[in-house]
Amino acid sequence: SIQMDAGPETSGSAFMLQCQQLLEETRVDKERRKRVIGLANQIVEALNRAAPKGHKGNYRKRAWLKKLGVTFPLLLSEEQMEKQVTAVEEYAWIKPTKIDIIDDSTVRVEDAAEVFVRLVVTMDTKLLDTRDFLNGVYHAKRALMLSSCAAIVKSEVAGVDLKFVCERGDSMLPVLRVCHGENVVDISITSGAEWIKAVRFTPAIGNIRASWAHGEKAQSKDSSPSPLFNHSLALSMHESSLLLSLQQQLLHRPKLQDAVALLQRWAKTRRISGLSPLFIRGWMIHLLNASKVNEKKDMMTTVTAFLQSMANLVSGTVASMEGEGETLTASTLGPITLWDESKSINVAVGITERALERIHVEANLSLASIGDLSTASTLFYDRLPFVRVFDHYLQLTVSAATLASIDLVTDTVSERDKLNSFIRQLAAQIEQGMGERIEYWDVAVIDDFDKDLFESSHDEWAVSSERPVEKKEYRIVLGFNPSQQWNSPLTIGPTANSPEVAAFSAFWKGKAHIRKFNDNRICMTMGWGETASESTPLKILSFILNEYWSIPPASLCWRTSIDKELRATKSNYERTTKAFSKLSEMLRGVKGLPLSVTNVHGVSPYLRGTEPDAALVAETRGGALKGPSLVPMEDRLPVFKPSVYVQIKLEHSGKWGEDDKAIEALTTAFYVKLAEGLKEQLSVLAVPTKHDCRVFIDEVVFRVEVMNGKQHAMMRKRVETLKNAGASRANLQPAQHRLEAFETKFVREQQLSSSLHGLAAAYPVYSQCVQMMKKWIGSNHLSSFLNDYAIELLVASQFTDKTKKTIPRSLWHAFTRVLTLITTHNWALKPLIVDLASEWNDEKKARIESSFVSLRPVLPPMVIVCNEDEKGCVWTRENPDPVILRRLICLAAQALSVLIENVHSEKPVDVTRVLCRESFKPFDIVLDLVSPLVSRLCESRGRPWKGSMPVIDWDPVEDLVAECNAHFGHLAYFFLNRYRPVSIGVKFKPHEDGLAVSLTRCGGHKRDATGKLVVNREEVMEGIKIMAGPLLAKIFVPGSNTKEE
């Protein structure tokens, strides 16, 4: 039995009201239901009164079907039909014993997007022999009855479109779909539960011979049991009674009905295989009869109880719809058993071990999200495609040779059956060989993806057409969510003296070996390399596929691996952090300073690994040594050398005074003393400047700046004084701006950097994803439009609130989630809330959103709220503007579609080329730069001179863009790839053309023929030429051969 808490009452909550609204949107309106039921009654009347001619003949021949304009819906060969044995060989139309109308809308659990009315036609058992359950005879006669129904409906019901529909999990039990406009009714055929005793369908019995299904070559498997075949046959027989029983128990229980409908939506949106509507309804009846839920509780309390039971569901659970039972036996078809009332059908047969793991994860995440208004749509409405669930995806081609394996003939009839058998066996092997490396995983067949990448669970074809021939080759996708052991170079088995050693060695084909560990354990292990590697899981899968299925490694392709070209070298980051540790120790250890250093804060992104380029400055192109500084030669440009920004705090002192200039002079003097102390006491190269002290340690230049608390206090006091004095806006604003700039630099950025550093330490993928985002933004020439902190917050949003959503553990998954966020978030109506400190509750977030609504007219287009900036505009105030934001969203959608397509496309996509591809087509003008004068493109030559301080943070291209924005930013956008600045794109602002003449608009404009003002492009380009000087090589218009040197 399942133990769980009753759960809190949520009646009347806004969350429940939102869920009820979502439910109403999925329900069928009364008029449409009336039309569908009318169609169903028409069909029932037609079938009951039918006395068709020509609906008879030997069931094996079926020539009479062609005259009726319908086809036989099974893919059975003539040889297979001839091998079938039955005492009733003649088929003739006999009026059905009964026809049951199963209408989900009667118990309010329907979905307007699905077929909600099914007719279950019980065929007369005179058409069946008592042994027709063997070798598909029942299925063939059932298919003939279905074809007869199709012919009758076709002739008796006007204006309908008829299709055969076959669930992909069972190719032998098609149904007939009758469509009349938007009104749809399914027709299924059953023998009725009384035809054969249920004991004939126990899993241990074989009701299908392998030699009948696959030829004489499979004769050795004839005595094998057929549990899946037996289950589907028994389910077909009991279909009507089972569905009607579930409806009867949900009848007159509206709150339970609402809960069931909502849970069906949840399982569908979360794409949880195994949680079929049949299981959800059956499990709800089980909870009801076991007194775990009741009709008096509100809908969300019942949903919570159901999800709690799913979170606590363990492998080996045996239950009945009737409630608790002491004598229930477990089914061998899966880890969970839920018997129907007859104890003959396990409605949980679709839940596998891998599906159970996913159920646990999704149930726990959903339980944490219930009550949060922002999650209702995600939980119960927005469908999650398979290709967005997991961190890693690998595509496998399953050839005809693999499906011809003798190991796949048991309990199968069709090629798709054999594929499903292959997947089941491969899943068991993956669990055994990689179980400790995986948290949860799943498999999907690419043919099942529809145009929107949601899985389609059935095939359908017109009743007048032949059933499509099955494929001989399939492509499947394996999705994995890794554990901490994902990249481990060792697969650790049992201890050397354990009885499991033989099985472990046999599984790895005798290639395992004994290893002694540091804790003196002696275990069997399988080695995959010397160190942890991203390729280790691929090696293990290749081993299993090759050794057990003779599938070559070329058939397996990792579709979500990211080229290391898009990431910084880990060793460079480690060297930078080690140098920072040395700096911190040195700063605190310098003696003789006027004030000692109390805190050292690493603010730079290089210290949390979120910058694509290295911070090392070990090489230069030469220069002249002047004092402690290395001055570059006039005919050579130094390589770009970044500094690592560090803030320090000093011990408190009351001797700073009250004069700003005096404090600045004293701070500069402190830099001088600090540099002298580092040089004399610790032999470290340090150069003081007016605004900072630059320290060279282990090939890293640190730029150290003092955060002066006295200055901060003075600024705040000055602003407060002006406010109290009723100062005018003109007098108050400069002081406020100085205070805000100071607090942003020394308070907000320092605190945010600390939070982001913690995130980077906890999730290494976070740093990699920020690097990749910066590279991708750069390749799209948007580097100058997005603040680095804004980019980091976009990424950080996917690594917070881990109780309500999974945290990405691969770079591909993290990157696609950030792109999805950019494209789907409603930036105009909602702020992006990033609670890095995990300290905001729902009420706090609601207040933030309310404040956003009231301030929306004065807020920037992109609002990112974090703990250090509750208004959400500190790092997005200037950029991106609406035009750039739309451009960013469009580019993100394009990149996302390529990444998703790569998972399921036949041929892999060169992701690195696509993400780093630069295009200048959108720009009006392109400024080509002289590569030798671009510091970020200069080649490094030689080693730095001992005792010299290299030129740092000098990037003439970024300086040029900043100057262009200062002079012409009101007329044009200037696009730059910071990490490969070979050119600058210029796009003139269209709203600056066609303006009315005014004095304030004259700058940079000229009058056109109509007397309106337009941008004076010649003037702008002339100004850019003057500012660029020798840095500019040529100007050209994209798509034109015209170039100006």
From TrEMBL:
Localization in the cell: Chromosome; Nucleus, Nucleolus
Protein name, per record: Nucleolar protein 6
Gene3D superfamilies: 1.10.1410.10
Assembly with partners or alone: Part of the small subunit (SSU) processome, composed of more than 70 proteins and the RNA chaperone small nucleolar RNA (snoRNA) U3.
UniProt xrefs under PANTHER family: NUCLEOLAR PROTEIN 6 (PTHR17972:SF0), NUCLEOLAR RNA-ASSOCIATED PROTEIN (PTHR17972)
GO process terms (BP): rRNA processing; tRNA export from nucleus
InterPro entries according to UniProt: NOL6/Upt22, Nrap_D1, Nrap_D3, Nrap_D4, Nrap_D5, Nrap_D6
CC terms in the record's Gene Ontology section: chromosome; CURI complex; small-subunit processome; UTP-C complex
Record's keyword terms, sorted: Chromosome, Nucleus, RNA-binding
GO MF annotation: an example: RNA binding
Nrap protein domain segment(s): 117-247, 388-547, 564-760, 763-912, 921-1035
Domain of life: Eukaryota
Main subcellular location: nucleus
Keyword Nucleus appears in the UniProt entry: yes
Signal peptide: none
Residue ranges that the Swiss-Prot or TrEMBL entry lists as coiled coil: none
